[in-house]
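Annotated sample (chain length 138).
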Amino acid sequence: MGTYISLDVGAIEIAWSKNHPGLDHSCLFHETDRVEIRHDWSGEDDCQMGFRSTVAAVLPRIELLGHTLDRARREYETAVTINSRERLEYAEAVGEPAPSTDYLAFDEILTIAKSIPAKGLSKEIDEKDQEPKRVLVT
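Output written by the structure step:
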């Protein structure tokens, strides 16, 4: 099966890597957070050492690394500005009308994200979909 590493928040897989080192997120954890983690996806009763902690315990270290809500807001607003400009330039170049730039505001996205119950999230794949995506279970 190979070597697999991931950073998960509940059922949400934030980052993962298979068969190569990937990103090292161990700086987010204390040595006391090292535990045996059971992997039921492997098809066998597989336990390996990994780190497990609460978001509340890890959050201060995430913020010390510069990953703050303010930074996320700035990066989102920059991405919207760049995308709007690129879409307008493309439309002008091909003679199309100006595209809509009606993006959700960062606070609207934050409100939506906060409204989704964590227990309603799933890593299951909709196998019937021609282009499978992660799905929400309601």
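Annotation: The chain has three helices and six strands.
Annotation: Residues 69-117 form one domain.
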